[in-house]
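[09:14] KT: can someone run the structure on this one? pasting the chain below
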Amino acid sequence: MTAIAHVGHGYWGKNIARNFHELGHLVAVVDPDARAAQAAASAYGVRALSFEAALADLGIDAVSLASPAILHFSQAKAALEAGKHVYVEKPLALDVAEAEQLRALAEARGLTLMVGHLLQYHPVYLALRGMVEAGELGRHISWGPGPRASQALMLAVRARALLDGRYAPSLDDVAALAEPVLKHRMALTFAARAEGETVGNVIKRLKSRIG
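[09:31] RB: done, structure tokens below
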């Protein structure tokens, strides 16, 4: 098991902490608000630690960072220097040079550094990217708030799975919800320059790819 200390139990950090707990990897919660950290730690049956204590703990293998973006570089750098694997919510850093420095540091120390672009690995995103790369949607496509549409779909399929007593959603969940969710989120913002392209046509092809 990879023992993970999660840093930043705010609006989005709560979701990351919950997921690591459900996977059985969360061992500590770090937050500048001591009461928030202790409440989360108590709820998950783990420890509430300071950032420094988490880095010094030899029993912790990795840290996940959902702190304010301005802290990502300094905290990721400190964690890597402490020998921890690091997962960082996007953005990895506020400067490209800093991001490159983190990459080089992780490579030099043989550690994993991952930025949280998780939607890039979602079946819907992969299918849409494949359609774009294959030229199926024409050459000039504007999706509007596409990541938000994908996020809405991910939340919907997770909810469907939980209501059915399952912790993880399946491709069946995605296929069942792709049309209503994506059509709702994309209908007013999708713009296709390819002649004859419509949201409905895209969704039908998308469902055929992931169904």
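[09:33] KT: thanks! Confidence is low (pLDDT under 50) at residues 140-145, 190-195.
[09:34] RB: yep, looked fine to me
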